[in-house]
Amino acid sequence: MKRIVLLVSAFVTVLSSCHSGEDFDATGTFEATEVIVSAEANGKLFYMDAEEGTVLDEGQEVGLVDTVQLYLRKLQLEASRKSVQNQKPDIQKQIAATKEQIATAQRERNRVERLLKSDAANRKQLDDWDAQLAVLHRQLDAQVSSLQNNTASLDEQSSSVAIQVAQVEDQLRKCHIVSPIKGTVLAKYTEPGELVATGKPLFKIADMENIFLRAYITSTQLVFVRLGDRVTVWADFGDGECRQYEGKVTWIADEAEFTPKTILTDDERANQVYAVKIAVRNDGLIKLGMYGKVKLPNQSSE
Q: The whole model's pTM is what?
Protein backbone atom coordinates (compact mmCIF):
# COMPACT_ATOMS: atom_id res chain seq x y z
CA MET A 1 0.00 0.00 0.00
CA LYS A 2 2.83 2.35 0.88
CA ARG A 3 4.51 1.59 -2.46
CA ILE A 4 1.33 2.48 -4.39
CA VAL A 5 1.08 5.79 -2.52
CA LEU A 6 4.70 6.58 -3.43
CA LEU A 7 4.08 5.81 -7.12
CA VAL A 8 0.96 7.98 -7.20
CA SER A 9 2.86 10.80 -5.49
CA ALA A 10 5.67 10.56 -8.02
CA PHE A 11 3.18 10.63 -10.92
CA VAL A 12 1.47 13.72 -9.52
CA THR A 13 4.86 15.36 -9.06
CA VAL A 14 5.74 14.77 -12.73
CA LEU A 15 2.40 16.14 -13.89
CA SER A 16 2.64 19.19 -11.69
CA SER A 17 6.25 20.00 -12.52
CA CYS A 18 5.36 22.36 -15.33
CA HIS A 19 7.96 25.04 -15.77
CA SER A 20 6.51 28.50 -15.56
CA GLY A 21 7.71 31.97 -16.33
CA GLU A 22 10.71 32.10 -18.65
CA ASP A 23 12.15 28.68 -17.69
CA PHE A 24 11.83 27.41 -21.28
CA ASP A 25 13.24 28.48 -24.61
CA ALA A 26 10.33 28.00 -26.98
CA THR A 27 6.78 26.74 -27.22
CA GLY A 28 4.75 25.10 -29.90
CA THR A 29 2.04 22.55 -30.56
CA PHE A 30 2.18 18.80 -30.91
CA GLU A 31 1.56 17.43 -34.37
CA ALA A 32 1.70 14.09 -36.14
CA THR A 33 2.28 12.97 -39.70
CA GLU A 34 -1.24 12.51 -41.00
CA VAL A 35 -2.13 10.31 -43.97
CA ILE A 36 -5.41 10.69 -45.84
CA VAL A 37 -6.38 7.34 -47.36
CA SER A 38 -8.34 7.75 -50.61
CA ALA A 39 -10.27 5.31 -52.75
CA GLU A 40 -8.37 3.63 -55.59
CA ALA A 41 -11.45 2.13 -57.24
CA ASN A 42 -14.96 3.15 -58.28
CA GLY A 43 -18.09 1.54 -56.90
CA LYS A 44 -20.26 1.04 -53.86
CA LEU A 45 -18.51 0.84 -50.51
CA PHE A 46 -19.50 -2.51 -48.98
CA TYR A 47 -18.05 -1.89 -45.52
CA MET A 48 -15.68 0.47 -43.72
CA ASP A 49 -14.26 -0.57 -40.36
CA ALA A 50 -12.25 2.56 -39.58
CA GLU A 51 -14.05 4.35 -36.79
CA GLU A 52 -12.46 7.42 -35.26
CA GLY A 53 -10.09 6.48 -32.47
CA THR A 54 -9.52 2.96 -33.81
CA VAL A 55 -5.90 1.80 -33.79
CA LEU A 56 -4.99 0.07 -37.05
CA ASP A 57 -1.96 -2.00 -38.01
CA GLU A 58 -0.01 -1.40 -41.19
CA GLY A 59 -1.59 -3.37 -44.02
CA GLN A 60 -4.78 -4.11 -42.08
CA GLU A 61 -7.86 -4.30 -44.30
CA VAL A 62 -10.58 -1.92 -43.18
CA GLY A 63 -12.93 -1.65 -46.15
CA LEU A 64 -14.05 -3.09 -49.47
CA VAL A 65 -15.37 -1.55 -52.68
CA ASP A 66 -17.70 -3.54 -54.98
CA THR A 67 -15.65 -6.11 -56.92
CA VAL A 68 -18.39 -8.02 -58.81
CA GLN A 69 -17.86 -6.49 -62.27
CA LEU A 70 -14.08 -6.75 -62.01
CA TYR A 71 -14.29 -10.39 -60.92
CA LEU A 72 -16.57 -11.24 -63.85
CA ARG A 73 -14.18 -9.44 -66.18
CA LYS A 74 -11.33 -11.55 -64.79
CA LEU A 75 -13.28 -14.77 -65.40
CA GLN A 76 -13.98 -13.67 -68.98
CA LEU A 77 -10.32 -12.94 -69.65
CA GLU A 78 -9.19 -16.22 -68.13
CA ALA A 79 -11.64 -18.10 -70.37
CA SER A 80 -10.35 -16.15 -73.38
CA ARG A 81 -6.77 -16.98 -72.48
CA LYS A 82 -7.60 -20.67 -72.15
CA SER A 83 -9.31 -20.59 -75.56
CA VAL A 84 -6.22 -19.05 -77.15
CA GLN A 85 -3.95 -21.64 -75.58
CA ASN A 86 -6.17 -24.46 -76.86
CA GLN A 87 -5.73 -23.14 -80.42
CA LYS A 88 -1.98 -23.67 -80.31
CA PRO A 89 -1.10 -26.40 -82.86
CA ASP A 90 0.84 -29.52 -81.99
CA ILE A 91 3.66 -29.08 -84.46
CA GLN A 92 4.96 -32.64 -84.25
CA LYS A 93 1.54 -34.12 -84.94
CA GLN A 94 0.90 -31.67 -87.77
CA ILE A 95 4.11 -32.56 -89.60
CA ALA A 96 4.03 -36.29 -88.84
CA ALA A 97 2.33 -37.16 -92.19
CA THR A 98 4.83 -35.14 -94.21
CA LYS A 99 7.72 -36.76 -92.37
CA GLU A 100 6.27 -40.18 -93.15
CA GLN A 101 6.03 -39.24 -96.85
CA ILE A 102 9.67 -38.16 -96.78
CA ALA A 103 10.72 -41.40 -95.11
CA THR A 104 8.81 -43.46 -97.71
CA ALA A 105 10.27 -41.44 -100.57
CA GLN A 106 13.76 -41.83 -99.12
CA ARG A 107 13.37 -45.62 -98.97
CA GLU A 108 12.17 -45.75 -102.56
CA ARG A 109 15.01 -43.50 -103.65
CA ASN A 110 17.53 -45.78 -101.92
CA ARG A 111 15.97 -48.84 -103.54
CA VAL A 112 16.16 -47.26 -106.99
CA GLU A 113 19.79 -46.33 -106.31
CA ARG A 114 20.63 -49.94 -105.53
CA LEU A 115 18.80 -51.13 -108.66
CA LEU A 116 20.68 -48.54 -110.70
CA LYS A 117 23.99 -49.97 -109.52
CA SER A 118 22.92 -53.40 -110.79
CA ASP A 119 21.56 -51.89 -114.04
CA ALA A 120 17.98 -52.83 -113.06
CA ALA A 121 16.79 -49.18 -113.15
CA ASN A 122 17.57 -46.07 -115.14
CA ARG A 123 18.97 -42.71 -114.04
CA LYS A 124 15.69 -40.87 -114.66
CA GLN A 125 13.93 -42.90 -111.96
CA LEU A 126 16.56 -41.88 -109.40
CA ASP A 127 16.34 -38.23 -110.45
CA ASP A 128 12.55 -38.33 -110.09
CA TRP A 129 12.82 -39.58 -106.52
CA ASP A 130 15.44 -36.94 -105.72
CA ALA A 131 13.12 -34.24 -107.07
CA GLN A 132 10.19 -35.60 -105.08
CA LEU A 133 12.29 -35.65 -101.88
CA ALA A 134 13.32 -32.04 -102.47
CA VAL A 135 9.68 -31.02 -102.88
CA LEU A 136 8.67 -32.88 -99.71
CA HIS A 137 11.49 -31.23 -97.72
CA ARG A 138 10.41 -27.79 -98.94
CA GLN A 139 6.83 -28.62 -97.98
CA LEU A 140 8.01 -29.70 -94.52
CA ASP A 141 10.03 -26.50 -94.01
CA ALA A 142 7.07 -24.35 -95.10
CA GLN A 143 4.72 -26.30 -92.86
CA VAL A 144 7.00 -25.98 -89.83
CA SER A 145 7.52 -22.25 -90.47
CA SER A 146 3.77 -21.66 -90.76
CA LEU A 147 3.01 -23.64 -87.62
CA GLN A 148 5.76 -21.83 -85.66
CA ASN A 149 4.46 -18.42 -86.75
CA ASN A 150 0.95 -19.44 -85.79
CA THR A 151 2.18 -20.62 -82.39
CA ALA A 152 4.14 -17.40 -81.83
CA SER A 153 1.08 -15.32 -82.74
CA LEU A 154 -1.09 -17.29 -80.32
CA ASP A 155 1.57 -16.95 -77.61
CA GLU A 156 1.51 -13.18 -78.06
CA GLN A 157 -2.27 -13.16 -77.82
CA SER A 158 -2.08 -15.28 -74.67
CA SER A 159 0.53 -12.90 -73.17
CA SER A 160 -1.69 -9.92 -74.00
CA VAL A 161 -4.65 -11.53 -72.26
CA ALA A 162 -2.41 -12.45 -69.30
CA ILE A 163 -1.42 -8.78 -68.95
CA GLN A 164 -5.10 -7.80 -68.95
CA VAL A 165 -5.75 -10.40 -66.24
CA ALA A 166 -2.90 -8.92 -64.17
CA GLN A 167 -4.40 -5.44 -64.62
CA VAL A 168 -7.79 -6.64 -63.40
CA GLU A 169 -6.15 -8.41 -60.44
CA ASP A 170 -4.40 -5.15 -59.55
CA GLN A 171 -7.75 -3.33 -59.72
CA LEU A 172 -9.27 -6.02 -57.51
CA ARG A 173 -6.51 -5.51 -54.94
CA LYS A 174 -7.19 -1.78 -54.96
CA CYS A 175 -10.82 -2.50 -54.04
CA HIS A 176 -9.53 -3.77 -50.69
CA ILE A 177 -8.92 -0.71 -48.52
CA VAL A 178 -5.94 -1.15 -46.21
CA SER A 179 -4.19 1.04 -43.68
CA PRO A 180 -0.86 2.33 -45.08
CA ILE A 181 0.67 2.79 -41.61
CA LYS A 182 0.20 1.72 -38.03
CA GLY A 183 -1.72 4.48 -36.35
CA THR A 184 -4.94 5.91 -34.99
CA VAL A 185 -7.90 6.91 -37.15
CA LEU A 186 -8.46 10.66 -36.74
CA ALA A 187 -11.42 11.15 -39.08
CA LYS A 188 -13.79 9.05 -41.17
CA TYR A 189 -15.24 10.58 -44.33
CA THR A 190 -17.42 7.82 -45.81
CA GLU A 191 -19.99 5.28 -44.70
CA PRO A 192 -20.89 1.82 -46.07
CA GLY A 193 -23.36 1.98 -48.94
CA GLU A 194 -21.99 5.20 -50.38
CA LEU A 195 -20.63 5.38 -53.92
CA VAL A 196 -16.94 6.20 -54.00
CA ALA A 197 -14.71 7.27 -56.86
CA THR A 198 -10.98 7.09 -57.34
CA GLY A 199 -9.33 9.79 -55.25
CA LYS A 200 -12.21 10.30 -52.83
CA PRO A 201 -10.92 10.58 -49.22
CA LEU A 202 -12.07 7.70 -47.03
CA PHE A 203 -10.38 8.30 -43.68
CA LYS A 204 -7.42 10.05 -42.06
CA ILE A 205 -4.87 8.24 -39.95
CA ALA A 206 -1.79 9.31 -38.00
CA ASP A 207 0.97 7.60 -36.04
CA MET A 208 0.16 8.77 -32.53
CA GLU A 209 3.06 6.91 -30.92
CA ASN A 210 5.71 8.92 -32.74
CA ILE A 211 4.64 12.56 -32.76
CA PHE A 212 6.58 15.79 -32.85
CA LEU A 213 6.50 19.23 -31.30
CA ARG A 214 6.64 22.05 -33.83
CA ALA A 215 8.30 24.89 -31.94
CA TYR A 216 9.73 28.25 -33.03
CA ILE A 217 13.09 29.66 -32.02
CA THR A 218 14.83 32.98 -32.66
CA SER A 219 17.97 33.49 -34.69
CA THR A 220 19.97 33.93 -31.48
CA GLN A 221 18.78 30.53 -30.26
CA LEU A 222 19.51 28.89 -33.62
CA VAL A 223 23.23 28.56 -32.80
CA PHE A 224 22.38 26.25 -29.89
CA VAL A 225 20.31 23.82 -31.97
CA ARG A 226 21.68 20.99 -34.09
CA LEU A 227 19.96 18.07 -35.79
CA GLY A 228 19.95 15.07 -33.49
CA ASP A 229 20.18 17.15 -30.29
CA ARG A 230 18.43 15.70 -27.26
CA VAL A 231 16.16 18.24 -25.61
CA THR A 232 13.65 18.34 -22.78
CA VAL A 233 10.00 18.74 -23.72
CA TRP A 234 7.02 19.46 -21.49
CA ALA A 235 3.48 18.74 -22.56
CA ASP A 236 1.09 21.33 -21.17
CA PHE A 237 -2.13 19.72 -19.93
CA GLY A 238 -3.55 23.01 -18.62
CA ASP A 239 -4.16 24.25 -15.10
CA GLY A 240 -0.40 24.27 -14.53
CA GLU A 241 -0.05 20.54 -15.11
CA CYS A 242 2.76 19.34 -17.37
CA ARG A 243 4.52 16.10 -18.13
CA GLN A 244 8.17 15.87 -19.08
CA TYR A 245 9.40 13.93 -22.13
CA GLU A 246 12.68 13.44 -23.92
CA GLY A 247 12.78 14.86 -27.44
CA LYS A 248 15.10 14.79 -30.42
CA VAL A 249 15.53 17.58 -32.96
CA THR A 250 14.77 16.06 -36.37
CA TRP A 251 14.25 19.12 -38.59
CA ILE A 252 15.21 22.79 -38.66
CA ALA A 253 13.66 25.21 -41.14
CA ASP A 254 15.97 26.70 -43.76
CA GLU A 255 14.04 29.96 -43.91
CA ALA A 256 12.76 32.29 -41.23
CA GLU A 257 9.09 33.16 -40.94
CA PHE A 258 7.02 35.66 -39.02
CA THR A 259 6.20 34.66 -35.46
CA PRO A 260 2.83 32.82 -35.31
CA LYS A 261 0.40 34.75 -33.12
CA THR A 262 -0.29 31.72 -30.95
CA ILE A 263 3.39 31.00 -30.26
CA LEU A 264 5.59 32.58 -27.60
CA THR A 265 9.36 32.65 -27.92
CA ASP A 266 12.06 33.52 -25.43
CA ASP A 267 12.26 36.92 -27.09
CA GLU A 268 8.69 38.02 -27.79
CA ARG A 269 9.98 41.05 -29.66
CA ALA A 270 11.43 38.85 -32.40
CA ASN A 271 9.65 39.40 -35.67
CA GLN A 272 11.01 36.33 -37.41
CA VAL A 273 11.65 32.84 -36.08
CA TYR A 274 12.73 29.41 -37.32
CA ALA A 275 10.52 26.37 -37.05
CA VAL A 276 11.96 23.16 -35.61
CA LYS A 277 10.51 19.69 -35.25
CA ILE A 278 11.24 17.73 -32.10
CA ALA A 279 10.34 14.04 -32.17
CA VAL A 280 8.65 12.77 -29.02
CA ARG A 281 7.62 9.25 -28.05
CA ASN A 282 3.97 9.53 -26.98
CA ASP A 283 2.80 7.51 -23.99
CA GLY A 284 -0.83 7.99 -25.00
CA LEU A 285 -1.41 11.15 -22.97
CA ILE A 286 -0.33 13.75 -25.52
CA LYS A 287 -3.06 14.85 -27.93
CA LEU A 288 -2.65 16.66 -31.23
CA GLY A 289 -2.85 20.42 -30.92
CA MET A 290 -1.76 20.37 -27.28
CA TYR A 291 0.75 23.06 -26.31
CA GLY A 292 4.29 22.08 -25.44
CA LYS A 293 7.42 23.73 -24.15
CA VAL A 294 11.04 22.94 -24.90
CA LYS A 295 14.35 23.61 -23.19
CA LEU A 296 17.25 23.79 -25.61
CA PRO A 297 20.74 22.50 -24.69
CA ASN A 298 23.45 24.90 -23.41
CA GLN A 299 21.02 27.78 -22.99
CA SER A 300 21.64 28.14 -19.28
CA SER A 301 25.40 28.28 -19.67
CA GLU A 302 25.40 31.11 -22.20
A: 0.71
